[in-house]
What we know:
Layout: H1 12-22, H2 27-37, E1 42-45, H3 52-66, E2 74-77, H4 81-97, E3 102-105, H5 111-119, E4 124-127, H6 129-135, H7 139-145, E5 150-153, H8 156-160, H9 163-176, E6 182-187, H10 193-199, E7 204-207, E8 214-219, H11 225-234, H12 238-252, E9 257-260, H13 264-282, E10 289-292, H14 298-309, E11 315-318, E12 333-337, H15 343-350, E13 361-366, H16 372-383, H17 397-411, E14 413-415, H18 416-424, H19 434-446, E15 450-453, E16 456-459, H20 461-469, E17 479-484, E18 489-495, H21 496-502, E19 508-511, E20 514-522, E21 525-531, E22 538-539, H22 550-561, H23 572-583, E23 592-598, E24 601-605, H24 610-628, E25 634-636, E26 640-643, H25 649-657, H26 661-672, H27 676-688, H28 700-709, H29 714-727, H30 730-741, E27 746-749, H31 753-758, H32 763-769, H33 783-795, E28 798-803, E29 810-814, E30 832-835, H34 841-850, H35 857-876, H36 878-884, H37 891-899, H38 905-922
Helix pairs in contact: 1-3, 2-3, 6-9, 9-17, 11-12, 12-13, 15-16, 16-22, 17-20, 21-27, 24-26, 27-29, 34-35, 35-36, 35-37, 36-37, 37-38
Amino acid sequence: MVEHDAFDLLHPKVRELALKRFGKPTEIQNLAIPVILRNENALIIAGTGFGKTEAAVLPVFSRLVENKYKKISVLYITPLRALNRDMFSRLFWWADRLDLEVSIRHGDTLTKERAEQRETPPDILITTPESLQAILPGRRMRRHLSNVRWVIIDEVHELVSNKRGVQLSLAIERLSRIARFQLVGLSATIGSEEAASKYLKGATVVKGNAKKDLEIEVLFPDVKKEDEKLAEEVLLPPDAVSRLRAILKLTSDKRSTLIFTNTREAAELLTSRLKTLAEILSKQTREIIEVHHSSLSRESRIKAERKFKAGELKAIVATSSLELGIDIGAVDFVIQYSSPRQVTKLLQRIGRSLHRVGERSRGVIIASEEDLHECVAINTLAREGRIEELKIPSNCLDVLAHQIAGILLEENETEVTRLFEMVKRAYPFSNLDYNEFLRLLSFMESLNLIRVSEGRVRKRRKTWTYYYENLSTIPDKTEYKIIDISSREAVGKLDEDFVAEHCYEGSAFVCRGAAWRVVSVEEGKVLVEPCEELVNAVPSWEGELIPVSREVAEEVVNIFNADIKRHESELDEKLRRFVERQKKFFTPSSERIFVENYKEFTILHCFFGSLINETLANYLSALLTEKFGRSVRYRATPYAIVIEDVLDANEIENLLSKGNASDVVSIISEYLESTRLFKQRFIRVAKRFGVISRDATLDRLQVNKLITIYKGTPIHSETLNEIFFEKMDVPNTLEILRRIKKGKIKIARVCGRRWIKSRAPSPLAKLALVEGAGEILVPKEPKKIIYDAFKHRLLNTKVLLVCMNCGNYSVVKPVKSVEEYPSCKVCGSRLIGVLHPKRREYLKIIKRKLTGCELKKDEERAYKRVRRTADLVITYGKRAVVTLSGRGIGPETAARILSKLPKNEEALLRAIFEAEKQFSRTKKYWSL
Length: 928
């Protein structure tokens, strides 16, 4: 007797192709195909390589072949343009053989292709959420979209956890008013099946028992003698060399390896260091490894993908840009460099190796001492199948305003109650309050976006412009250059999110192996100076880091309290040494917050994960700021809160034990309003409301004025809503505060025997103080290098020297070439003025003055300024030229420096350096 399977349910043409392609259906295909053929909405969950894409499209192809549906019948929505490209290739194989047409629509689609899609639409349109927004109101495309019978959403988990998913949910509701269709969602890993099912309109969850066979090892390389020798050669710490050498060894016997990092900066650094070390160790060409991340051009990414697929590259170092299902050919092995921060990230990334049914996915996590415990905890949870819960944003007012505009473009006008009912049908708005909805309509009317009267909402002239200028909820992020004030050289780049949260005068961060202290933040630039210690320096990739969940933090606690063999047998000894060192101070607990003092810092050891700790830190900082009458700086990690102040356990317990839930929320909200983070997010939300144009740049005063004007409006409340969702966990923080109040969570002082004896920080405190240093691939610069870099820059600065006596002599030369007492080569005078080489227009002013011509007021001021520099040169000689070449140093500042008669060259250079820093700090206020 022949065993029947799901392929037997398909149209003969589709069945024949499926058998040719696969031989037999996978488990998920057997389960999903009947559900889709029964016209049920479906959420298909299966690991990478289990054939879930075909589980969704084969029954749809079967129906298309059976019936001649009007075009467009199928919308296939992916979160990335690159996935659109890959999905087109994948679906075209089937469509071409079934006489069906497939087309792609995204932001880069040519005008000619768009016109063709309007005139002769395809059966299947592959698109992104943003492109769907663009075509929904169009008259002709809307007519084609009314034929849609299936909407397939790929990588559901990637969309529903952010505002793109919120926007898509309302787009689906808008589409449902003109078309009747079946919803199908695909996901490899998803933390809350029930929430995702509700998002997909009550979809049937289709999930097989088969699980991807994963082999994941945590590797903590030992430092060997050869690493110490190489460290001197490549100027890296020995432990960093050991990790890099381990990566090269792992990739050497593999055909293709994907190496994942958490950030773009780390990907760039890791790639360059691996290439350097590969050349030293084996004289291999540097072309064996390439980098791939979202900031690279599309051409660069495609080139790397093609070379990897063709076997021309041994490895690609990537961020989340290759985490999803982009086709890069067979991947033998996956390396995760440092902690992946989340179980879902680890599973998604390791699952890219041997991306075929029945194959075992293999990979390793390369850990450092800093994140070893976290790597082991995440790997343990991955083996046990315990993944993070999915969070879906709710009631996003900026997204709702945009979608209301879209609806009015489609209908011109509609009833308020009908509009509210439609919005409520979208899961992210299912608990939207009617009064809040009316308040939003009133605000939109005040912005001239809509008109509301007699229970109806109508579009206005501005509606169209507002809608099409804000199709994407993805923020237009600005990158800031990091400029080393000592050498004026670029160190790297920072995202505006990181600048908003962490860059204020005096704050410190880690970038490219060094600690940098912020001197000032200017338009597009963060001016920094090297600082000697990594203590309390935030890693520069912190702004990009994925939050560590409470579950992972609690598993870290288990490592210190349970049998280590449960976690990672091959790391028993290394973990045990770390655990034993820590236990001499205290044993981590989920029922205790340990307070540890070290130097000017107070470390609260609280193992609640990133979001709860960030919320607690904001609340505590707000209380301390109010108590002391001054700003109290802090930083939060998944396992600790570091406060730049000396506090005792009783003081902290008293602060955290008072206040009710409403007080906590209002205190945090008020505190947030004064932060750079709030201002940055406020601008982002205001742009989505159309109050600020997408390309606008605002100074500090303009932003503060806007916040004052729009306080209490939906812009203000949505800014707080966005921060609370992305950066905090208020409900669980309130629960922890209640437990502290009831004495169920104790706050205890660290007083272990090791601490009493040495007063050194505990191992966990040390990690909290320098979190992120383990990913550093370059040693920090010593003072001499810093000093030499500044000196080199200053002495090589070119200056324009001009004779103020005859005006007939001028010369441009580097400062180092200036004589001890420069003089005019024409008249012999030592009255030599100093100018920037670009200020040659001053030469005419000087000549006119010397010939007796009358000068304008601004010309007279310019002449006097140059003459003042000449007075300094005739008195101090070359030392004056050196001083005046400093950035932002005019004759008055130079006179103050020189009048103190610095003892030697180093003292003079340090005085110039400090003056430059002062200029950078105050420059932005000169025009106020």
